[in-house]
């Protein structure tokens, strides 16, 4: 499994732990839902800026988000 897939799985896990849909996370983080779906499936190489946005939105540190 490559790093994009592992990151996507970690992101999906944290999102689901909050009980949020992809749409809710997308709206809260101001990231397109279709892009977010691609990240969770390991199809997109997410930028550092978006990693920071998602961590903040999920209420975790970037290191927690990257802990996979």
UniProtKB/TrEMBL annotation:
Residues 11-65 form the HTH cro/C1-type domain. InterPro entries: Cro/C1-type_HTH, Lambda_DNA-bd_dom_sf, TransReg_Diox_bact_type. SMART domains: HTH_XRE. This is Helix-turn-helix. Keywords: DNA-binding, Transcription, Transcription regulation. CDD domains: HTH_XRE. GO terms for cellular component: cytosol. It comes from Methylobacillus rhizosphaerae. Pfam families: HTH_3. GO terms for molecular function: DNA binding; DNA-binding transcription factor activity.
């Amino acid at each position: 499994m490559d790093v994009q897939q592992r990151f996507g799985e970690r992101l999906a896990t944290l999102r689901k732990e909050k009980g949020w849909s992809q749409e809710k996370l997308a709206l809260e983080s101001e990231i397109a839902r279709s892009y977010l779906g691609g990240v969770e499936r390991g199809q997109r190489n997410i930028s550092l800026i978006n990693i920071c946005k998602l961590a903040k939105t999920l209420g975790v540190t970037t290191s927690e988000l990257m802990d996979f």
